Amino acid sequence: MVIPSLPLEITLLIADFLDPYTCFDFSIICKSCWSLCAPLVAKHKQLFAENSIIDTTPAWGTLQPILWEKLNQYLDCPYDGFYVRDITLPSNRSTYLDVNAAHDFQLSRESPAPPQDDIKRYHLAMQMIEERHGQNDNLTSNWDSWIRKGSSEPILSLLIHYTPNLKIFRFTDLELKEVFLPLLYCIAMGYGNPRLAPNLPFQHLTTVAVAHWDTESSCASDWCQYFCSIPSVRSFVARAMGGSSSRHRDLDGLPSSNVRELVFQNSRFDASAIEQILKKTPLLERFTYDVGDASVAEEVFSVEPDRVLRALQNHVGHSLQHAVFASWADWDNEEELGDVGQVSLRDFKELKTLRCDWHILRPIRDEIASSPETLPDGDFYTEEQETLEDFDFRSILPASLEVLVISGSAHLDDTELLSELPKRSAFTPLLNKIYLPDEGTDILDITGNPLLQYLQGQG
Description:
By secondary structure, the chain is of the alpha/beta class. The protein has a domain at 3-48. It has helices spanning 8-17, 20-27, 31-51, 66-76, 116-132, 143-148, 153-159, 180-190, 222-228, 271-278, 305-316, 334-337, 358-361, 415-419, and strands spanning 53-55, 86-89, 168-172, 207-211, 219-220, 235-239, 241-243, 261-269, 286-291, 322-326, 353-357, 403-407, 433-435. It is globular and about 80 Å long.
């Protein structure tokens, strides 16, 4: 039986039973279905306008328990959560029901807790979540105590299970480490289990933005590792992220990522953390790394740009098309940069655009890397033959490169080396746009990256 031949009442019952997206698909099967379902589609459109964004930014001079209100709404009417596509959690949100507390140590005996009826409802929802996650007894073991403290962490952890169509998640990492971060790890690991994956949250999540809540230190790179392991995520952007990889959880066991773009603004990683991230993102196409100063990192370590470049080549050299390295030009001393050695970039097979500091491409010390490839005339460099004067800088650039932006400042003795760049070369047959030091300061600058819009209001 085809749909148009069904009684009108049955057709409407079917349409009313469907979720908003499927209802629209159902309504455009034929002209008669559209005429019949148009009022229902209009209702869904209105509900999308009212519920598509959960913004916990407080009104001026007030703090509102928005997350608690939304969770109670979705527990009453789960379908309302189907309309949510964007959640934003800025640092000035209500992290506790106690409006005078932003951190747990600011709580007092007089701090309010949720009503007992709400706590009972939350416990029932927790049981449902445990079933989704394969009866993980440890998953919600500490949730009750945080719920009774009036913390927003377990509330958010429940809420994401009622927003199945969420696409954008942006947040400041304030008071999210006790409940939400461990849950996120379980979700990421769960996506590696075909039995659990269909029931997990974040099925349609594509974009994640995270910022650190303070002007010093940084948010953990674990956020990047876990979110990028969710299959639907394609873009991840962070401000003030850094440090080392987690030593407390199995990162190698996380599923491989489908992420296409990573953006790190004012961030500073230990090189091993970058390596850990990159080896799980084999499809990466765009990479932006704006290095922050020492105030971002809790531990003191050098930037090791050559190690970062090698990690990029080793793990995503086959897929990376766009690379921007910003703020490295501010460091003209080896103490900040670390022991910089020249890196040949020939192993990048698809790289089309590159912005990089001159000190990284042409190291501080006079060390010239031998090219592993034969020259156009059939000869090749040897270590004994190579000198700075006859070194062809283009021999270390990717053959696929089309746009090159060299940031920073060059030394006077590099003038001749740079003057050769605009000339055509068999090493870089596609290179057609070159911006020399002090010429292209705004070209491919990180501030023009559209993903930064998701960090507005965060941190």
